Amino acid sequence: MPFDLSSRLAERRAAHLYRQRPLLESPQGVRVVVDGQPLLAFCNNDYLGLASHPAVIEAFAEGARQWGVGGGASHLVVGHSSPHHALEEALAEFTGRPRALLLSSGYMANLGTVTALVGQGDTVLEDRLNHASLLDAGLLSGARFSRYLHNDIESLGSRLAKAEGNTLVVTDGVFSMDGDLAELPALCAKAREHGAWVMVDDAHGFGCLGRNGGGIVEHFGLNVDQVPVLIGTLGKAFGTAGAFVAGSEELIESLIQFARPYIYTTSQPPAVACATLRSLQLLQGEHWRRERLAQLIAQFRLGVSALGLNLMDSPTPIQPILVGSSERALGLSAALRRRGILVTAIRPPTVPRGTARLRVTLSALHSEDDVNQLLEALQQALRELPEGE
Ligand code: PMP
């Protein structure tokens, strides 16, 4: 048989790397039903609790009534509707950039942007812990592609010194599996010394960082010259779906001309844009959601350090506990699940070998009591599976 898929699958299973999809049988949220079991969940990216907000749902339903369900065509044919346009204008204003462009997913936004900006004869430099979509984009671009050490400005500098052609430095704003922030002020200064452009994917920072939820650029107060290419995704704190690129007039027009994942795909349903316009207002205006998150993060970090666990250094709602082996991460995740708590084990290749972890994410909809329940379950899980087993 030419394709020996069964051996490949068996190898993956033996290495404790086999993936299974839990079946969600309830709406997304803090309390979910998965595979028939009611669970308290600490693993979705709906950080502000907007995915099931009644006003967002209503805007979506009304949008579907008015605009139908499907996007109907690609943006350049006849799929670019008034709700898409209004959302792009609102996102430009929100990010303080001249223009924004809406895409159907963050993965496509990253592929489309990098491949439209650099190609053969150019250079793309990426943090080695960047999201897979950014790394794939770098490879696909055909530019010289190199990964620098995580958040290491010296390591970036030595690569910049050897760069050729147009050079793009690409980083996550908040690292999706670690929760830490990119060292953006230093990174932007280093890129500028070498005439390189900076592209930031702030999928996990928008909504959570900055007083108005403007993400890492608001957090550090960075302007469009320092971060000319800014990506946000809408499936996380915004609670809807899709993504955007924000930047100059020329950047957005270039993407409309050259970004293949933008050009050759059906636009997102206009109703999603209607829902996102509503969630953007809530995300900006309801400061209590970020304040609640900050309290929960402090409570969780204090509690976990008392348990002697290896908590990663993160100021964001992504609070990973470093475990090491995939087997132990799976064991702890299963022990939590037996206690009614859902936290997924993240394993290679999503994270580097030997750094499997429990990726805990907090939401503004969690209560202090929910976090206490998680801490208690963690303590019991550790007793059941002491280190070394
Ligand atoms: N960038 C980052 C940093 C992400 O974490 C993700 C998704 N988890 C994406 C991009 C892809 O976004 P989307 O889910 O909208 O494709």
Protein architecture, described:
The protein is an alpha/beta fold. The chain has 15 helices and 14 strands. The protein folds into two domains: 14-48 and 287-384, Aspartate Aminotransferase, domain 1 (Alpha-Beta Complex), CATH 3.90.1150; 54-285, 3-Layer(aba) Sandwich (Aspartate Aminotransferase, domain 2). 44% of the residues lie in helices and 17% in strands. 4'-deoxy-4'-aminopyridoxal-5'-phosphate (PMP) binds at residues 105-107, 110, 131, 133, 172, 176, 201, 203-204, 233, 235, 243.
| Principal-axis shape | globular
Summed up, the domain count is 2
**What is the fold named in CATH at topology level of the largest domain?**
Aspartate Aminotransferase, domain 2
How many β-strand stretches?
Answer: 14
Indicate the mean pLDDT. Answer: 96
Bound molecules: 4'-deoxy-4'-aminopyridoxal-5'-phosphate
Return Rg in Å.
21 Å
Order of the strands making up the biggest sheet: 3-9-8-7-6-4-5
Please state the oligomeric state of the protein chains shown.
single chain
N-to-C span: 39 Å
Chain-wise SSE layout:
Layout: H1 5-14, E1 31-34, E2 37-41, H2 54-67, H3 75-79, H4 82-95, E3 99-103, H5 106-117, E4 123-127, H6 132-141, E5 144-148, H7 153-161, E6 167-172, H8 184-193, E7 197-201, H9 215-220, E8 229-233, E9 243-247, H10 249-258, H11 260-263, H12 270-285, H13 287-306, E10 310-311, E11 318-324, H14 326-338, E12 341-342, E13 344-346, E14 356-361, H15 368-384
Parallel strand pairs: 2-12, 4-5, 4-6, 6-7, 7-8
Antiparallel strand pairs: 1-2, 3-9, 8-9, 10-11, 11-14, 13-14
Bound molecules: 4'-deoxy-4'-aminopyridoxal-5'-phosphate.
Binding site for substrate: 19, 131, 350
Cofactor: pyridoxal 5'-phosphate
Domain Aminotransferase class I/classII large: 39-378
